């Protein structure tokens, strides 16, 4: 698809791309095909697409999947999707952050494939990963910098990367250039895939330490990213420094380390040990 095609379709719908909604329409059909391939979409799958826009991805999903549920907040774009009329397609005009996923998707298993608004990436991930109605797999087109942060490409962890790793295994499928969109975004993009952990893995972790405690600990550890993690934990959570020194030494974490240099497994060990010693 060419930029002229996008502009013509938008003009016919009476739409101008809205920056506040992060509307950058994907042009590159090769990227679309690679996203669908990465998710291994088949006729047995139900797929959720967030922010379908003009339907370049939706069209392929209808062809490959058994059922497609799309959530589009823009009224005119939602109306425009009616042209893709198919008994496989369910169009929901709503805000993805406000809708109840179980009310949209009746099947117990589903996948997510989408080019999402970059400005709400973290909120969308939180919506999809938390709770009991978690997809089997997620393939998203996101800002490249965010994708790299999630997969720890620079060997540094973050609140977001640790949150995602708790629920699944992320990887970058490919980089996507600015010219693959109209209008062009100011940032480069990437296709991010998250293969979800089984419920047993997540439940086993929570059996040792509640996830609320785990994420509270991470938040405290990153409260002042340039300071030593042990000082952040002591200051933010009021933990005794001698107790922290003892726990850090026991599980093999340097007393001088910053939060970004602690890998997921060590965070989990730290949370479990501190929780058990409360």
By CATH, the topology of the largest domain is: Rossmann fold
Mean pLDDT: 94
What structural class do you assign from the helix and strand content? alpha/beta
What is the count of structural domains? Answer: 2
Biggest β-sheet, characterized? Answer: 7 strands, mixed
Order of helices and strands: HEHEHEHEHEHEHHEEEHHHHH
| CATH architecture assignment name of the largest domain | 3-Layer(aba) Sandwich
Percent in strands: 15-25%
Kindly report how far apart the N and C termini lie: 59 Å
- Coarse shape: elongated
Number of DSSP helical runs: 13
- CATH H level of the largest domain: which superfamily? Vaccinia Virus protein VP39
Supply Rg. Answer: 21 Å
Neighbour order of strands in the largest sheet: 4-3-2-5-6-9-7
Give a count of the beta strands, DSSP E runs of length 2 or more. Answer: 9
Helix amount:
40-55%
Question: What top-tier CATH class of the largest domain fits best?
Answer: Alpha Beta
Low-confidence runs of at least 5 consecutive residues = none
Give a nutshell description of this structure.
This is Ribosomal RNA small subunit methyltransferase A. By secondary structure, the protein is of the alpha/beta class. It contains 13 helices and nine strands.
Characterise this structure.
With 278 residues, this protein is an alpha/beta fold. It has two domains: 3-197, Rossmann fold, CATH 3.40.50; 204-276, rRNA adenine dimethylase, C-terminal domain (Helicase, Ruva Protein, domain 3). It has helices at 3-13, 29-38, 56-64, 75-80, 101-104, 121-129, 144-150, 159-167, 199-208, 211-221, 229-237, 241-251, 264-276; strands at 25-26, 46-50, 67-72, 89-93, 111-115, 137-143, 168-176, 181-182, 189-196. The strands form two sheets. Strands 4-3-2-5-6-9-7 form a seven-stranded mixed β-sheet. Strand 5 (111-115), helix 6 and strand 6 (137-143) form a beta-alpha-beta unit. Helix 11 packs across helix 12 (241-251). The longest helix has 13 residues, at 264-276. The radius of gyration is 21 Å and the shape is elongated.
């Amino acid at each position: 698809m060419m930029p002229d095609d996008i502009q013509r379709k938008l003009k016919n719908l009476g739409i101008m791309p809205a920056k506040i909604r992060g509307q950058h329409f994907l042009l590159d059909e090769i990227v679309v095909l690679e996203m669908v391939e990465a998710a291994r979409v088949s006729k047995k799958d139900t797929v959720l697409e967030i922010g379908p826009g003009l339907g370049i991805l939706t069209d392929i999903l209808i062809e490959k999947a058994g059922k497609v549920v799309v959530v589009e907040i823009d009224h005119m774009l939602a109306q425009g999707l009616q042209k893709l009329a198919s008994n496989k397609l369910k169009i929901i005009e709503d805000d993805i952050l406000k809708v109840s996923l179980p009310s949209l998707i009746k099947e117990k298993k589903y996948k997510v494939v989408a080019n999402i608004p970059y400005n709400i990436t973290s909120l969308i991930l939180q919506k999809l990963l938390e709770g009991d109605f978690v997809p089997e797999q997620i393939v998203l087109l996101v800002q490249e910098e965010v994708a790299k942060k999630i997969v720890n490409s620079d060997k540094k962890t973050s609140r977001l990367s640790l949150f995602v790793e708790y629920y699944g295994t992320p990887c970058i499928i490919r980089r996507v250039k600015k010219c693959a969109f109209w209008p062009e975004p100011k940032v480069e993009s990437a296709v991010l895939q998250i293969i979800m952990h089984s419920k047993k893995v997540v439940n086993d972790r929570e059996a040792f330490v509640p996830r609320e405690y785990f994420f509270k600990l991470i938040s405290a550890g990153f409260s002042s990213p340039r300071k030593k993690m042990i000082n952040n934990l002591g200051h933010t959570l009021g933990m005794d420094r001698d107790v922290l020194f003892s726990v850090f030494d026991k599980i093999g974490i340097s007393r001088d380390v910053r939060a970004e240099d602690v890998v997921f497994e060590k965070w989990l060990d730290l949370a479990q040990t501190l929780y058990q010693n409360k």
